Amino acid sequence: MQSLTHPIGRCLLVWTLVVQLVLQGSGAYADSTTKNCKLTFESESERKVLQRIESLGHRNFSAEAKIGEAKYSYVFRLCADAGGVPGAGVIQVEGPKTEKKITVIGMYNATEVIGGSDYVWLLYGNGENYDTHCSQEQRKAILMIFCNRNFEVGQLEIVQENRERVQNCFYQFKLETSAVCPPLEYKLSTGSIILIVVVCLVAVYLIGGFLYQRLIVGAKGMEQFPNYAFWREVGNLSADGCDFVCRSRDREEPPTYTGVSTEPLDEEPEERDDHLLPM
Ligand SMILES: *[C@@H]1O[C@H](CO)[C@@H](O)[C@H](O)[C@H]1NC(C)=O
Ligand SMILES: *[C@@H]1O[C@H](CO)[C@@H](O)[C@H](O)[C@H]1NC(C)=O
Questions:
Q1: What ligand has the least distance to the C-alpha of 91?
Q2: What is the pLDDT of residues 111-142, one digit of tens each?
Q3: Which residue's alpha carbon is at the smallest distance from atom 8 of ligand 1?
Q4: Distance CA 128, CA 137 (A)
Q5: pTM of the model
Q6: How many whole angstroms from 82 Cα to the centroid of ligand 2?
Q7: Residues 135/116, Cβ–Cβ less than 8 Å
Q8: Are 84 and 62 contacting, i.e. CB atoms less than 8 angstroms apart?
Q9: Closest among 168, 138, 156 to 74, alpha carbons compared
């Protein structure tokens, strides 16, 4: 973020923002994986939360757990078939000691999401029924996704399988990613954006003009500045204006104007040159 203090860095930031706005406006992100998730309660706001974790799509996540002798591994995918099981968002694979047994924990056609400023909770319902626990209800998976700016995507962890309840049991997973972090705010007000754009334009004008004067017109020295004569005039006029406005004492008028009545004109050079004479 150091580059932001540099004028060129700011120019780049502004252009990046502009390009992003243009891309978003033209629907360049329309082809999303999260569209494959079917929300239990379809709503615009939940779709927006899903879009925040869009970057987790096209990835396989897996976690291992050991309970006594049994080894379990879990696979999670965002709005796509986990482990190739159609419709499954989270599966549990028991093994490898025994024959591999796949249990669907949650399906992405029963998705719910809750989002906060720096976290997203994702719930997949509709999993396979419990055999004996939890009133033999359907399994479900809850994935807690937390903000961590240290890496793009961390490791999937299984936190717990809570099946001691009579109902509403769940498998709880945890994942850390920078995708759900709140955007770093540079608090660019409209005023400062305009200022930055103006600075950028001035820089382009100066550099472009300089190159034009130097390479095409073939100017040398100060003449290489674009519109040098014009700006020198502007500089002189503003100096005059400043002189007129800011000077507190009267200007020392040249003697040619003051000495109209008293001193004859031809005496003046003598006075001025006095100090130049050798003593
Ligand atoms: C994820 O796993 C599925 C099936 O196991 C496989 O077909 C796919 O290529 C994997 N994708 C990535 C990005 O590893
Ligand atoms: C999700 O898909 C499964 C299997 O294809 C189906 O049995 C179930 O009814 C679907 N659920 C919803 C909410 O669409």
A1: 1
A2: 999 999 999 999 999 999 999 999 999 999 99
A3: 60
A4: 8
A5: 0.60
A6: 16
A7: no
A8: no
A9: 156
Higher pLDDT, 222 or 204: 204
- Going from the Cα of 125 to the center of ligand 2, the distance in angstroms, rounded, reads 10
State the closest ligand 2 atom to the C-alpha of 40, by its place in the atom list counted from 1: 13
Mean pLDDT of the chain: 82
Q: Is the CB of 238 under 6 A from ligand 1?
A: no
Identify the pLDDT of residue 158.
94
State pLDDT tens for residues 59-95. Answer: 999 999 988 888 899 999 999 999 999 999 999 998 7
Contact 67, 89 (CB under 8 A): no
Mutate to test the pocket of ligand 1, among 60, 77, 78 (most ligand atoms within 8 A of CB): 60
Structure tokens at 73: 């591994």
Return the ligand number nearest the Cα of 61.
1
